[in-house]
Design brief:
It is built from two helices and no strands. It has helices at about 10-60, 65-145. The longest helix is centred in the C-terminal third of the chain and has 83 residues, at about 65-145. GO terms for molecular function: cytoskeletal motor activity. Its main location: membrane. It comes from Sulfuricella denitrificans (strain DSM 22764 / NBRC 105220 / skB26). InterPro entries: Flag_assembly_chemotaxis_eff (IPR053716), Flag_FliJ_proteobac (IPR018006), Flagell_FliJ (IPR012823), FliJ (IPR052570).
Length: about 150
């Protein structure tokens, strides 16, 4: 029977850490995508609002309304800048998470390689034991089947 891989608990732990890092990476990716979508929505809203401002100014508008439009556009621009910063933060967190996941992948692969080597070694050891047993059985069978010396005539 093959002996248990002595580092199996570490291999299992590395697998669990890698799986957790993969889940975290997925969560970070989703947050990044949500931030990107909000950024895009703000940009579209800004363009729609600019088009509305342009259309309204062609028809004529009061100075106070123009000032309100411009103030609101300024607020939209500030929101877009903040959202762009959030997108960059999310991207950075995702990249950091990816590096962490890759490091955990490498560690897992190292333990897995050791585990595979252990399995190969155990197979070789078992094959040798089986061969030795077969040789002993053959040797014992040969001893029992040896003809006795013929009687002198």
């Amino acid at each position: 029977m093959p002996r248990r891989f002595p580092l199996q608990p570490l291999l299992d732990l590395a697998q669990n850490h890698t799986d957790a890092a993969a889940r975290d990476l997925h969560t970070l990716k989703v947050k990044w995508q949500v931030a990107e979508e909000k950024f895009q929505q703000l940009a579209v809203y800004r363009e729609d609002y600019r088009a509305k401002l342009l259309q309204t100014t062609k028809l004529g508008m009061q100075v106070s309304s123009l000032r309100d439009f411009q103030l609101f556009l300024g607020k939209i621009e500030a929101a877009i800048r903040q959202q762009a910063e959030e997108v960059e933060r999310c991207k950075k967190r995702w990249e950091d998470g990816r590096h962490e996941w890759q490091a955990k992948q490498r560690k897992l692969k190292a333990f897995d390689t050791l585990s595979q080597r252990h399995l190969i070694s155990e197979r070789k050891r078992e094959d040798k034991l089986e061969q030795r047993e077969q040789d002993e059985l053959s040797g014992n069978k040969f001893k029992h089947e040896e003809p006795t010396d013929p009687p002198d005539t």
